[in-house]
Each structure stands twice: as C-alpha cells, then as structure tokens.
Amino acid sequence: MKEFIIGVNYWASHAGTNMWRDWNEEIVRNDLRFLSKNNIKTLRVFPIWPDFQPIKPYYTSCKLYEYRMEDDSLPKNPYYLDETMLSRFDKFLDICGEFEVEVIVGLITGWMSGRLFVPTPLLDKNVYTDATSLMFQEKFVRGFVSRFKHRNEIKSWDLGNECNCMMWAQSRAAAYNWTALISNTIKSVDNTREVVSGMDGLTLDGTWNIADQAELLDVFTTHPYPYWVANGSIDSVTSMRTLLLPTALNKLCIDIGGKPSLVEEIGTMGPQVCSEEIAGDVAKVNLFSTWANGAEGMMWWCAFDQTHLKFPPYSWKKCEVELGIAENNVTPKPALLRFKEFADFLNETKLDLPKAREDATVILTIGQDQRAIGWMSYVLAKMAGANLKFGFAENEIPESDIYLLPSICGSDIMPQERLDDLIERVYNGATLYISCDDGMLPDFSKFTGVKNVNFNLGKQVGSFELCGKRIEFSRNCKHYLELCGAKEISENSSEIVFTKYSFGKGMVYYLNYPLEKNFIGKTNAFEGNDYLIYKQIFAEKECVVTVDNKYLGVTEHLTENGAFAIVINYSPEQQATNIMLNENYVVDEVVCGNINSIKPFESTVIKLKKKI
Q1: Which of 218, 344, 432, 502 is deepest in the core (most CB within 10 A)?
Q2: Can you point out the beta strands (E) in 117-255?
Q3: Is residue 354 in some structural domain?
C-alpha cells in the first residue's frame, strides 16, 4: 500500500518560532503525544537558521578578521552550528521516536510566517548569489545533515520553508544555482532520503521554475492557500472552484515536473475567513480529493494556535495566530478530527489505490496566466465528468486521446515543432479543443474548418444555446468567422461561437472566446451552464462510472479485475449521484459513503469488478 502522508507543520504549542531558544521538553512531549493520539504521524519541522548557526563577524582595521559564534566563542564544529541547538534537535527526535512520528526537516529556514530569519551578518547580502551567504548555507546543510542522517525519525530533507520568499532572486539562473547547491549538498552527505522542495508558487516559465526544480529535486510541494493565491478567494471557501484549487495546483506540479508532489501546507487562514466547522469540511474534502488525484499527502498549517505569542512575526501578522489544527491548550479543532477520521479510513481499508485514469491533456501555452488557466480548465473538466493531465507548450506533447488548448493568446503560443506534432496527432485520431483570446495559429482554417474574415478589439458580450441551455460570454477581442467545413454547434446566436470539424481521423472543437481566462476573475462563474462546453468535448469518452451531477467529481482507478471509483461532493449541499455503470462492470462493494447520494463535502468510494 502506497503511503499517503497525513501530517501537520509543527511549532511547539508554547513557543512558536522561539521553540528552539525557549526549549521545553515536557511541552514538546505532550504536543507529540496529543498529535500521535490523533493519528498525526508526520511533522514538518524547522531548525531556524540564525538559532542553529548564530554567526558573528569580527573586524580589525576595517577588515573582516574572522567569524565566531554569537556569544563570542569559537565554533565547536567547522559548520558554525550551535551545539546546544543540535542537542535539542536530537532530543526532539528522541521524543518523535517515542510516539512513532516521522519528520520532514526544512533545512534553510530563513523565512517563516512573514518574518525573515537570516543570520545578522548576512542580512545585507543576497542569499541566492552572495559567496559568503552561500558558504554558510552550504556549511549549515552539510553539518546538519551529517549530524542527523543516521536518525530513523527523519523521513526526508526539505530545502527550507518557502525559500523562494526570502528575497528577490535576480534571475532564473540564480534560482537554479541556489537550488542545485542546497540539493547537491544534501545528496552528497545523505543519498538515502528524498529531497523535498518546500516551496510554493513554482511557475512554468518564471524565475522559480518547475522544470529546473524537477531536475534537481525528488518531490515537489504546493502550499495552495486560496487566501494567498491570486483570485483564490473570489468565491467562498466552500465553492467547487475554491475547493479544487489545492488538487489542481498540486496536479500541475506532478504532470509538468514528472515528479511526485506533496500538499505540504494547507489551511483556511483562520476564523476571520471561515468558522472552524467549515475549516473541518475543507480539510475533509481536500484529504479525499488530493489522495484520489495522486498527491503524496496533505499537511495542515499548522499544529497549534499562537494567539498567546507577542513577538514577531505573531505581533505583526494577525493572520498567523489562529491557524492551528488544535488550540494552543491542546484541544482538537474539527479539522484535526477530519484528519484522524481519514487516517483511520486508510488504516482500516488499506486501499492500494492505482493512479487515476486521465481523460485528456490540457496544454498550457506561452504568454498566458498558466496556473490560473490550468485551474479553471481543471474545474470545468471535473464538472463535465473528466480528469485532466497538464502539459506545457515548450515540452514534448504527451500521449492523449483528447487535447485542450484553453484561452490561447498572442503570437508565441507554442513552438512550431510542438504545434506540428499536436496537429498531426489530431489528424491521426485525437480530439482537440481550442478556445481563443487573441491567439494566432498558422494554417488555422486547415485544421479548424473556420476562417477569420475580420477582427477587432474592445469589450463585447453575447450568448448562445448549447443542449437547450443558455450560455453567456464576454471577450475583449472578436474574430468574425465563416465556416469552411466546420459545423456550428452553438445555437440561437447572431454569430459563430462554437464549432466542430472533422480533421483527418480526428476532431477539432473551436470556441470563439476565452472561456477559461474569463473565469479567472469572475465571481460565481461556475454556477452557469458553461461546463456543458467541456461536456460536449468529452461526450464520446469511455467511462467505468458516469455521474450526472456537475458538483460531483469522479476519479476512476483501474485494477486487474475491476476498478475503484471515488465520487467527491465539492459543494455544501447534499447531491444525488445519478450513477450509471459501464455495462462491463458491477458494484462489488461500497467501501465508504452512499452510492445514491452524498452529503456535503463527503465522498463515496466504490469497488467495482468486471463481469465474467
């Protein structure tokens, strides 16, 4: 059975980021006893950089003479690591061993909860490029990993907490070189454990890049708080759009990077955003959703509330103090109860869940907001009963029966070699969907069956019907189309909006506005009938289980003798499943939940077997 990590990010309940300076063995033991009792068996922990490497420069005649420790003593090891802090970390691992708890260690913890934690002599230096800063980081990592690599309680090494937030990286090359230094140093000392990113916000073509990190690391991480993601809180925290954000962004890292990805931090940002009861609902649905869609695990931020702490960052950042999965008096909140229930479910069922079947590949293109477009496409596909795999226009085109090019814009879009490959795949039998902003594609008429006869910019609105349902749209760029082989499938519209064209053995759908881009900043966008556009694209796909309800997401996990189907309710209302089975399958067992209807935020797991 493949492990699914269920854990929390840990600071001692009495001290927060001062945990190592204000060490209290008994409180830490009580914390871990409580967490372990509630089936939290993985912690992410943080040896604060200046606490463990408290260096101080000494000068003579305006010249740097040497570095010593903060208390003026000579270092007791070549890594300038504080022996008292190392001993405390050793004791912490002893306590973890008592309760059979594993830890992910965030090594370069120079950033935490809005505060920079960098040794004072290095504060005026760029941590990613300055030679002195890099030297001390290399020493820190080499010394720390050497000291603790023999400890069985350590599950993996994390580069550090959101190291891409410490300061501005001057270039993609600088980010790459820094990552390579830290990762390679870890592996040179301990090649038995995975190296985990510890970052969030990695992009497809930016400074902190998925492709670069994939080359250098073993496990990606996402920290997908809707509160901090652009347009992440446009709808309520219980909306399908918001609930699917962690799953979509984590899947993006898995597919683009080709490596596993862990939802390493997740939470609702406290009672000013939603009640603790709703936070528990969010935890429940995301545990099932990330598990079903291939995540390595899910970890809450953080273990305990920190309302009693009156020093930075807690005295600065009011949003940081009520994020615990438990109160600071070690009382569980609903989210912790949901974590425990899910851990119990996995322990009792021991499901060895195969990878979910993927119905289509969405290819994100150059010049667009790729993470946001990918997220919108992912939600629309879920509503239409399909599961997406992500691709990127600069990479090789993955094998797929269905391809989506959502909201293409500009004149770059993708290298011509990639476009030629894609069009050839469609000619040989694949299906392609294109929605257009102001994108330009060579030989456009040849493979779409429509041609542009005119063009203008400016805000425009319109509507059409599909399957008897009205769909309204807007755009900032209008292409005036004529049919040259395609069939119009949009109805009751004054213009050509949605078309279908047989191209070779394949099929091309073309939508004359950027549906996915329009949804990024639109409140309640998914409450309409727009998902029917995607449903049209996926109408011919073969399913084991079909659920005719846009608020229910389904994943299918094929086995040798049958399949598992996981149906998740991404809404605050009870939903009828309206389940239809492929004629070759029958229900073997309802592992959990109800096959006919699903309560708010809950899930049904069905085991199916093939008919003999």
Answers
A1: 432
A2: 154-158, 195-196, 220-222
A3: no
